[in-house]
Amino acid sequence: MKSLQNLGLLAALSLSTAKLLYVGVNESGGEFGVFGTPGTGLPGTFGVNYAFINESTVDIFVDQEKINFFRVTFLMERMCPLEFGLGARFNETRMQYFSEYAAAINHITVTKGAYALIDPHNYMRYNDPSNQPFSGSVIGNTSDPNAATTAQFGEFWGELARRFATNPKVVFGINNEPHDMPTQLILANDQIAIDAIRAAGAPQLILAPGNGFTGGHSWTQVTGNNDAPSSEFLNKLSDPLKNTAIDIHEYLGELAGRHVDFSGQHAECTQPAPTNLANLTLWLRENNLKAVISEFGGGDNQNCYDFIDDMLTYLAANDEYIGWTIWAAGPLWGTSSPCCGPDTGSLEPGMLNDLGQPDAFSNVWPNAVRPNIPKDLKRSGVSSLD
Ligand SMILES: *[C@@H]1O[C@H](CO)[C@@H](O)[C@H](O)[C@H]1NC(C)=O
Ligand SMILES: *[C@@H]1O[C@H](CO)[C@@H](O)[C@H](O)[C@H]1NC(C)=O
Ligand SMILES: *[C@@H]1O[C@H](CO)[C@@H](O)[C@H](O)[C@H]1NC(C)=O
Ligand SMILES: *[C@@H]1O[C@H](CO)[C@@H](O)[C@H](O)[C@H]1NC(C)=O
């Protein structure tokens, strides 16, 4: 019944023009190795505490799976060491974090010709990543003498964008999952990043996050400690190039917004994306905005395959969505599960889960993701909304 419905939808879709431009996977690992006591793993050792990609598995994704989009995480405290503070001064020693990161981005974009989403994985906080997502000072919190300022955040983005300005295949993600802060401050931080990126001469697509871990299901709702809905502020962003989309995360487990809710036992998918995203979709349409779902996930079971399939079918059927990246592959997961039940494993090709069985690349991917990879993804040109 369900698959027949899907076939009907796909047939209808194939008559219209392609809408999804960017489809792929998170490459997570650049933010690893800092958990615990403040200062742990800073700056850390490349290949031991953190790593960005395994080039061979990126090749598998591009050559065999035909995806075109990788979200690559990094930590702002490693790009801008605490002794420098957040801003335009990066770690400039010879084997520094930026060049390690740029090598990963260049492999994806130059060698393989795919698009890369640059993701400062910082929850809009800087100075203590030891207990993310809650540690660290909220950027732009003027009551916190240790907090980096909104202006410093702009300087950081201006410098980062300048370094990638001539690479058409990057997309700038302003920050991972802001939460528990005034929504107006998220707007201010997003806006200064957009202004700094454009002032640096970088024309590429920008993704701007909202509050509540940028959850799609709660986009029009109050989140945190009575913080205003993202929908009340994020339509006030302005981009002189009109090349900014909204960055959304949406998990399918018990609490739709947060992948941490999948840790441990919550392997079942219970949150239907088409229903949970309906208010967001309407808001996007009313405000003439587009969105990318840059994080979502489901576990290794038929129930989650169905929920993922329903979500990706919904995104393909609604003009407001231009892309997605599933969470997560990456070189350092080992047998761990980035989401969705301890036995799921990661999406890194060739790895095992904690039971010694093939990981999610061998089950979740072929059952729920691969059938939803469009054939006509964007392959050339500056990253853009169309
Ligand atoms: C990188 O991926 C290849 C292909 O799956 C694998 O053979 C190799 O062991 C991986 N390297 C690391 C360091 O994980
Ligand atoms: C810069 O990065 C290198 C390589 O990871 C590291 O050895 C060095 O301590 C870092 N510098 C600062 C100031 O953190
Ligand atoms: C801002 O800083 C003050 C003082 O440290 C703190 O009480 C408050 O919770 C912070 N606000 C946010 C949104 O983190
Ligand atoms: C959508 O918005 C309406 C009106 O604000 C609200 O009643 C409803 O709960 C929302 N639906 C979801 C799934 O958030």
UniProtKB/TrEMBL annotation:
Residues 26-329 form the Glycoside hydrolase family domain. Keywords: Glycosidase, Hydrolase, Signal. GO terms for molecular function: cellulase activity. One of its GO terms (biological process) is glucan catabolic process. It is an enzyme of class 3 (hydrolase). The keyword Signal applies. It catalyses: Endohydrolysis of (1->4)-beta-D-glucosidic linkages in cellulose, lichenin and cereal beta-D-glucans. The keyword Nucleotide-binding does not apply. This is cellulase.
